[in-house]
């Protein structure tokens, strides 16, 4: 059985494998994570055995196919991406602006899906599978606002909040004030806090138990956002409510012991 220390190394090592850098060697992993080369090799070998990594020629490692199987298992249990997809498309059809679906994973925003905007000049947005800091994005704030005080403190108080633009909120007290506003209005905004001249609005998605499981955001050049800010906020709210209702319907179809009315009541009481 793997020791606790070995298990604690697995997360940081898997975090190294990204779209931008999908391949790593033992020495590179050891240097990046700050562990002995022998320890890095042992963890990499274990991950190869489980199928999470694949060892190529000359000791180079990439993500393994086991990840695809796990992704399908996740899709079968929480199908938020499939439920959200048509609603994201409709939001883009209406406004022509880039939309994202994201979750909060280990204190950071993880992007699950994206529909690019249709304007000649549109926000490129985040890549699917990429991560960003939660405190400086609308979708991150929408997700942070639903955490308990203890959970929020673990994310925003452990280390200084990084500044990305002059507008980035780096004061935890001010961030908490913004999150209070998000709870009151139902949506969050990012006014050029992650990328200069890009404004975003986001709202949370709830499952059949009323828990926030994801969020939808729309990313807009600041000049266009100012003209339709309130309209866009209402549209994103309507979109996330529609996705939440879709999740309730799916849950009712897959769990006969729980009625649609019970699931709907759980969603409504948490809204």
From TrEMBL:
Signal peptide: none annotated. Residues 4-65 form the HTH iclR-type domain. The keyword tRNA-binding does not apply. Keywords: DNA-binding, Transcription, Transcription regulation. It comes from Pseudonocardia ammonioxydans. PROSITE patterns: HTH_ICLR, ICLR_ED. It comes from the Bacteria. Residues 66-253 form the IclR-ED domain. InterPro entries: GAF-like_dom_sf (IPR029016), HTH_MetabolicPath_Reg (IPR050707), Tscrpt_reg_IclR_C (IPR014757), Tscrpt_reg_IclR_N (IPR005471), WH-like_DNA-bd_sf (IPR036388), WH_DNA-bd_sf (IPR036390). Pfam families: HTH_IclR, IclR_C. GO terms for biological process: negative regulation of DNA-templated transcription. One of its GO terms (molecular function) is DNA-binding transcription factor activity. This is Transcriptional regulator, IclR family.
């Amino acid at each position: 059985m793997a020791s606790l220390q070995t298990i604690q190394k697995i997360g940081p090592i898997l975090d190294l494998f990204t779209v931008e850098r999908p391949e790593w060697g033992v020495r590179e992993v050891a240097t990046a994570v700050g562990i002995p080369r022998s320890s890095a090799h042992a963890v990499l070998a274990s991950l190869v055995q489980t199928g999470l990594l694949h060892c190529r020629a000359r000791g180079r490692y990439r993500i393994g196919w086991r990840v695809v199987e796990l992704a399908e298992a996740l899709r079968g249990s929480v199908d938020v991406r499939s439920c959200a997809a048509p609603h994201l498309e409709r939001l883009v059809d209406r406004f022509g602006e880039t939309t994202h679906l994201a979750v909060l994973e280990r204190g950071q925003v993880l992007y699950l899906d994206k529909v690019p905007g249709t304007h000649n000049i549109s926000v490129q947005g985040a890549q699917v599978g990429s991560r960003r800091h939660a405190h400086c994005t609308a979708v991150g704030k929408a997700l942070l606002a639903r955490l308990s005080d203890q959970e929020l403190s673990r994310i925003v108080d452990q280390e200084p909040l990084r500044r990305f633009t002059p507008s980035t909120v780096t004061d935890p007290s001010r961030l908490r004030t913004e999150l209070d506003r998000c709870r009151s209005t139902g949506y969050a905004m990012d006014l050029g806090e992650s990328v200069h001249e890009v404004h975003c609005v986001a709202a949370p998605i709830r499952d059949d138990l009323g828990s926030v499981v994801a969020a939808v955001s729309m990313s807009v050049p600041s000049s266009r956002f100012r003209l339709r800010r309130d309209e866009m906020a209402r549209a994103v709210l309507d979109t996330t409510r529609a996705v939440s209702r879709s999740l309730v319907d799916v849950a009712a179809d897959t769990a006969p012991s729980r009625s649609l009315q019970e699931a709907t009541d759980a969603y409504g009481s948490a809204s």
